[in-house]
Design goal:
Blueprint: H1 3-24, H2 27-36, H3 44-49, H4 65-78, H5 88-112, H6 117-125, H7 134-142, H8 146-168
Helix pairs in contact: 1-2, 1-8, 2-4, 2-8, 4-5, 4-8, 5-8
Length: about 170
């Protein structure tokens, strides 16, 4: 695939992820859904299960759902099966998966400066929100354009993840 074709696919992924975020307001699931529209190694069961990763994973204001969803997609692509026989090849495969995990983390950090949901909130809302505190969660959902601001993070995360996968092949 040439760069122009890759960019066309990435634009489709970004569009699907952004639209899903605007519709559903679930960052992790929206991003993994966008990626699944092209990458067939991401099954619907993973898209559905990623619902629980939103809001800093389980609405706990921890790791960014977009970051976790990106790591999940990369894990699906590069990680060896848990029941794989231990061989020299499987050991190399595991090391490669570990490298991919760290490489993606660094790319995400370069873009967003953090992997934490509340810290990304500070960047896009000038305030962090703790979803474990009902008052703060309600305040977050009352921000008029919160879906669009989060959708920009989803869109950028989808782009970073897709480009990483394409460039790692």
């Amino acid at each position: 695939m040439n760069e122009k074709e890759i960019q066309k696919v990435i634009e489709l992924i970004k569009k699907k992820a952004y639209a899903a975020q605007i519709r559903d307001d679930l960052c992790a699931r929206s991003m993994i859904y966008g990626l699944s529209c092209y990458f067939d190694f991401i099954p619907n069961e993973i898209v559905n299960a990623s619902y629980n990763l939103a809001g800093g994973v389980g609405a706990s204001s921890g790791s960014c759902g977009v970051y976790v969803a990106g790591q999940l997609a990369i894990g699906l692509k590069y990680s060896p099966a848990i029941d794989q026989e231990v061989t020299e090849e499987s050991k190399r495969s595991k090391k490669r998966a570990e490298r991919k995990m760290i490489e993606f983390r660094e790319i995400f950090l370069d873009e967003f400066g953090t992997t934490l949901c509340p810290e990304i909130h500070k960047k896009i809302f000038d305030k962090s929100f703790d979803f474990k505190v009902k008052k703060e969660a309600k305040e977050f959902f009352k921000v008029p354009d919160h879906k669009k601001r989060c959708a920009k993070v989803v869109k950028k995360g989808a782009e970073l993840t897709a480009r990483f996968i394409f460039m790692s092949e």
